[in-house]
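Example record

The entry below shows one chain as it appears in the dataset: sequence first, then structure tokens.
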Amino acid sequence: MHAATHHRDLYTVQQVRALDRRAIDDLGITGFELMSRAATAAFACLCRQWPQARRIVVFCGPGNNGGDGYLLASLAYGSGVRVEVVELSDTSRGDAVLAREKWQGDASITHGWQQDASLPGADVYVDALYGTGLNRAPDASAGALIERINASGVPVLALDVPSGLNADTGHCPGAVIHAQTTVSFIAAKRGLYTGKGPAKAGEIQIDTLGLPDILWQGMPTDASLLDAMHLAPRARDAHKGDSGHVLAIGGDTGTAGAIRLCGQAALRCGAGLVSIGTRAENLVALNSACPELMAHGVHGPQELQSLLSRATVLAVGPGLGQGAWGHALWLTALDSGKSLVLDADGLNLLAREHRPLASAAVITPHPGEAARLLETSTAEIQADRFSAARELARRYGAVCVLKGSGSLIAHPDGRLDVCPWGNPGMGSGGMGDLLTGVIAALMAQGCSAWDAARMGVGLHARAGDAAARRGERGMLATDLLDPLRALVNGLDA
């Protein structure tokens, strides 16, 4: 399995190929030996995941991923499992030629893929069609096979990467295998962890194929998976003034709930004081719902100034709107130079009117907001979330949280972390408002913008997973508040 020293490291396909080449050139391990090790690791994974499986079908493409599949088929056959192979082509390439010949030397059952043929029955299907070797949509014939596999109801083990998934970006330009488990070799490919990657890969297992740690020396990672983080215990003589003062600005007419959620999250994550600058008509509701929030009616910039002078960190955008009131408060907040978290309409206003941000700033766009900030389409953002997050951070000089499945946290200097937690139940109103408050609270307590964003995204996603134990459908943003309190203190949620 994956060496502990690399458990958070994510790599591009090019980097993994360089590692593969190092193993061959510097360590003297042949390509066929690496293929054999991959097949052994994959068969061991299959036996762990499906110990009762007695019939498997391996779907092999012409490249090295198919070679892994042929060798897995031979291993399974030798262990007494009934094995059939369905191949896309009868012409293999490179080391896969030897692997196919080995399989054919067994008492093999091999079928060429025909679109009008039915698939053999099995307990498990093994996807060895393309792996990392495909960065376009599969052709019509392969796409039809992938769709047939997905519709079969048979569980799928994908080798290295589900075929059809871009291993660099997590994008699916066409048909893609939907695997229950993916065993990935040598190093973790970054595309497995964001975009469509988590949904298509299922449970991800990494196997370094017994290669020594020296192989990774001098090879920089492209990104890292987040660690579970929390704040250190407070000093016994701490008081509210030691934990910062968050000023949350927003809540135009009809959107008081957004700024309330932001403020409550900041309180639950430990901000000493939380003030709200909002429409005057929201005050009764806010004070009744959460008396710990210090809600102030703000008609314009002049009334906001007195609140700004007392604040440590600003949380700008939840329910702000893009009208004259919201725009005036937005300008005043940005001109203050205070550390801030910018979300929602705060980002939409920034897309319309580029303004410099404070030196300690976090922006938290979803893909639609990111598209507006980069003047492109949501589809383009999702096609390469890594490039988009890094460009947003660079262009705006701020730490960027690109939300979505496998949220990304990018620093202007190019560093990038990927969140491995979260679930579809978090796709409901108010979740982003909570995240804004969480990050602002961490900044108010002394975290840098980078650390606050990383920790905040992790806490938010893990709280969502805790809330999802009672079911994903029907989850409310407020369901995350109690888990957030536990997790920020390092307790079980």
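Notes for this example: The first strand starts at residue 9 and ends at 11. The chain has a mean pLDDT of 96.
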